Structure prediction request, 180 residues.
Amino acid sequence: ASLVISAYSPVHYGSLIFIESIFDNSAQNDGLSGVRSLAQVGNYLYTAGYSEDEIGIYRINQDTGKLNFISVLNANMLPDPAMLNGPASLVTIPNSDLLGVVCSVSGVLIIFQSDPASGGLIYFDSIAPRADDFTIKPSDTAPETNPLIGSVALTYLPNASMLLTVSPQQNLISSFSLDL
Prediction:
């Protein structure tokens, strides 16, 4: 039995219409284990598969809205596999083909470039900041403290060209200017 729930005729809920639900590791789907976030770049949807340290790649059917699984990007495909430990939040960088990912376990912010033809992700840049990198910091902060550890949300501010992360574990917001 398949674990894909699809509506073959529209199911209306007020102004919303149910299309489908898809499950991890069923009907050729992957990248949904412990999914924390979604982001769209072009015709592709990306999922933050937190539990398996991977990003799912789905093509969006522009006529029906249904998702077709393409592949996953897993940690072994990066320069350092430890970078993609706990992908918690994804964000699209408007007017570009870039996707930002913050990983709450590794404390790394990764930028990928999305291939418009395949949806594949190409490593673009990353940062794993430490308190010791900054000239001004609270005196009680250990030099190896990474402000991205525990991050659960990532957003992009287009007017300021900045990425912001939120870490409730450390009770802070971290901001990064994006110079493209």
Remarks:
- Confidence is low (pLDDT under 50) at residues 1-5.
- The CA atoms of residues 38 and 65 lie 15 Å apart.
- The two ends are 47 Å apart (CA to CA).
- The first strand starts at residue 5 and ends at 13.
